[in-house]
Write a structure and sequence with these properties.
alpha/beta; Rossmann fold; Arc Repressor Mutant, subunit A; 5-stranded parallel β-sheet; 4-stranded antiparallel β-sheet; 8 helices
Length: 229
């Protein structure tokens, strides 16, 4: 596995590197303190995951996230001191797969990284999944909606895959969090809400009045084929 760290604090880079050396020694680490270089490395190094700081010297981390998402669906974990709810929502809405606030526990960060990596191939099932007009291929996260091809992040792909496997059945917040993150945690329902909103924006004709991914108030979500009640 190749990990790209875009972080301008050398102590943080060292801590993350040590964490991987001890707990995940086969991982290959590449790092840069510059945003522009980080974007270039996503293209040239093809990392399996990116750990991204928001406070970079040459560019706002949110802008880095947006630029990477133009050409890549590589899993991205934001690691930052910014803990305001608005920043968390913005990061997830713009395509981050997870959001971790500094100071962080090393084992927690490693667990979150591993959870994101597991989501690269939802449920370990490589077979294409077909549900109504949707055709999803887990290893590549290729989604066809009729004739339209839609790019999904790792987390979006995992959520949609779980909804498709349970089509027309309500999936609870906690069971979906368990499927996506390997366990429920405080704030998971809010994070799911952001990812669901992004999925609706990509799939629905009118995301404010969803017909495909529907909400069961206070419980969870379910996938409804067009024309289903």
């Amino acid at each position: 596995m190749k990990v790209l760290i875009i972080e301008d604090n050398p102590e943080i880079v060292e801590a993350i590197s040590l964490m991987f050396q001890i707990r995940w020694p086969d991982a290959q680490l590449v790092s840069t303190h510059l945003a522009e270089k980080g974007i270039e490395l996503v293209e040239s190094e093809a990392p399996d995951i990116v750990i991204l700081d928001l406070g970079l010297p040459d560019m706002n981390g949110f802008e880095v996230l947006k630029q990477i998402r133009v050409f890549s669906t590589v899993p991205i974990v934001i690691l930052t001191v910014r803990e305001e709810e608005a920043d968390v929502v913005r990061g997830l809405e713009w395509g981050a797969d997870d959001y971790v606030v500094k100071p962080f526990r090393q084992m927690e960060l490693l667990a979150r990284v591993k959870a994101v990596m597991r989501r690269k191939s939802p449920s370990g099932d490589d077979r294409p999944l077909v549900c109504g007009p949707l055709r999803f291929h887990p290893p590549t996260r290729q989604l066809l909606y009729g004739e339209r091809e839609i790019r999904l992040t790792a987390t979006e792909g995992h959520i949609l895959h779980h909804l498709m496997r349970n089509a027309d059945r309500v999936v609870t917040h906690s069971s979906l969090a368990e499927e996506v993150w390997g366990g429920d945690y405080p704030g998971a329902a809010d994070s799911l809400k952001v990812h669901i909103r992004r999925l609706r924006q990509k799939l629905e004709a009118d995301s404010s009045h969803p017909q495909l991914i529907r909400t069961k108030a206070g419980i969870g979500y379910f996938l409804a084929k067009p024309g289903w009640p």
